[in-house]
């Protein structure tokens, strides 16, 4: 009796998908609207939300229509302008109105520090200028600055990728997560443009499959060979020597280098450390939170159990089963080889290198 052998082919050069719309786009003048690519519909459908209210933006952030720490910050900055524009406060009430709208937006996602950072930056601007127009101007500046940061991250990290490497990444830290090239994926895009030949394992990233749905889509569109793997396969592939380095993004980084990223990152970092595989984190300086001395103070978002218990509306478990759904975990800084930032590659000891980079970036 014969059996068909299992395939050992793990990656391929897929047909390139059509370019995606930007995840965040302001359309028009001061009476314009915010367009957000609904990432919950990808890759099957490309739906662009056309939003004119702060509540609409807040709902899109909460439902992960827009996601990725930098992109959330940009969207929130535009949402702040929309919320103030809705209420048309007079000059004496402008700052208080902006604070109220910002609080509504800030409540949507507690872990990603870029959300608070962008709103604080916009509020600081309006306190000085006392004009509604300054909020739109600052949102545009935040978007521009993030795009520039992505380019610098790409340049600062591209030499970490070598011919013949297999790179593992977790969740999505590409163009869909930022206002530019991305963070972790920006490094891969730049290395590919420089002629490096490598392949990527993209963790599926349960429960919402950002790796399978989004990261694989972005890499395929760039012509980079990619294979989606089950989250549970990452440690085994690392142990077998099939991964040469790991590059992930981050949603908040404490002053000592502890960082929050999509749930499952900590386990990958442990496996990498056990097998002496370089583990890099790519993020702009806006993702660092020096007010937190270590990762134990990072708030971890708990999302609805239904995201774990169902898939595309179909129940995965028997009725009455409970679930936990922490959206992030915290990886200790001592498991990180280096942080690739818009200010360069930060190496241990991280308390000192992070402090220096933040001082230089002011």
Helix content: 25-40%
The overall pLDDT, averaged over residues, is 95
Helical element count? 11
Radius of gyration: 20 Å
Number of strands: 16
Pick out the low-confidence regions.
Answer: 1-9
Summing up helix and strand content along with how strands pair, one would put the structural category as alpha/beta
Query: What is the name of the CATH class of the largest domain?
Result: Alpha Beta
CATH topology value of the largest domain: Rossmann fold
* Multimeric organization: single chain
Strand order of the largest sheet: 6-5-4-7-10-15-16
**Architecture per CATH nomenclature, i.e. the level-2 architecture of the largest domain:** 3-Layer(aba) Sandwich
- Taking the alpha carbons of the first and last residues, their distance comes to 70 Å
In total, the number of domains comes to 2
What's the main sheet like? 7 strands, mixed
CATH superfamily of the largest domain: Translation initiation factor eif-2b, domain 2
Would you list the SSEs in sequence order as H and E? Answer: EEEHHHHHEHEHEHEEEHEEHEEEEEH
Structural shape? globular
User: In percent terms, what proportion of residues is strand?
Assistant: 15-25%
Q: What does this entry show, briefly?
A:
This protein has 362 residues and is an alpha/beta fold. It has eleven helices and 16 strands. The protein has helices spanning 54-62, 69-87, 94-106, 113-129, 132-157, 184-193, 210-222, 234-239, 265-274, 306-309, 350-361, and strands at 24-27, 33-37, 48-51, 166-169, 199-203, 226-229, 245-248, 252-254, 259-262, 279-282, 288-289, 310-311, 314-315, 328-331, 338-341, 344-346.
């Amino acid at each position: 009796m014969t059996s068909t052998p299992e395939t050992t082919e793990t990656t391929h050069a897929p047909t390139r998908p059509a370019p995606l719309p930007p995840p965040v786009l302001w359309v028009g003048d001061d009476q314009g609207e915010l367009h957000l690519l609904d990432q919950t519909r990808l890759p099957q459908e490309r739906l662009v939300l056309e939003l004119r209210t702060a509540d609409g933006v807040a709902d899109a952030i909460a439902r992960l229509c827009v996601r990725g720490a930098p992109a959330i910050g940009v969207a929130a900055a535009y949402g702040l302008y929309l919320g103030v524009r809705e209420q048309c406060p007079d000059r004496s009430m402008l700052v208080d109105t902006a604070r109220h709208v910002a609080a509504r937006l800030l409540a949507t996602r507690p872990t990603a520090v870029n959300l608070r950072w962008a709103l604080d930056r916009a509020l600081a601007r309006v306190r000085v200028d006392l004009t509604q127009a300054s909020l739109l101007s600052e949102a545009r500046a935040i978007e521009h600055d993030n795009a520039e940061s992505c380019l610098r991250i790409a340049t600062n990290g591209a030499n970490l990728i070598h011919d013949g490497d297999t790179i593992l990444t977790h969740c999505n830290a590409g163009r869909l997560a930022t206002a530019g090239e991305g963070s972790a994926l920006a490094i891969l895009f730049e290395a590919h443009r420089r002629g490096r030949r490598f392949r990527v394992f993209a963790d599926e990233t349960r429960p919402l499959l950002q790796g399978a749905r989004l990261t694989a889509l972005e890499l395929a569109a760039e012509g980079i060979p990619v294979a989606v793997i089950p989250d549970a396969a990452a440690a085994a592939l690392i142990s077998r020597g099939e991964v040469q380095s790991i590059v992930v993004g981050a949603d908040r980084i404490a002053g000592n280098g502890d960082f929050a990223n999509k749930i499952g990152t900590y386990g990958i970092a442990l496996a990498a450390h056990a097998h002496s595989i370089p583990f890099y984190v790519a993020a702009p300086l806006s993702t660092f939170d020096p007010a937190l001395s270590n990762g134990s103070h990072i708030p971890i978002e708990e999302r609805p159990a239904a995201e774990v218990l169902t898939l595309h509306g179909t129940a995965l478990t028997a009725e009455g089963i409970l679930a936990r759904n922490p959206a992030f975990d915290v990886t200790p800084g001592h498991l990180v080889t280096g942080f690739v930032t818009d200010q360069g590659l930060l190496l241990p000891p991280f308390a000192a290198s992070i402090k220096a980079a933040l001082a230089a970036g002011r």
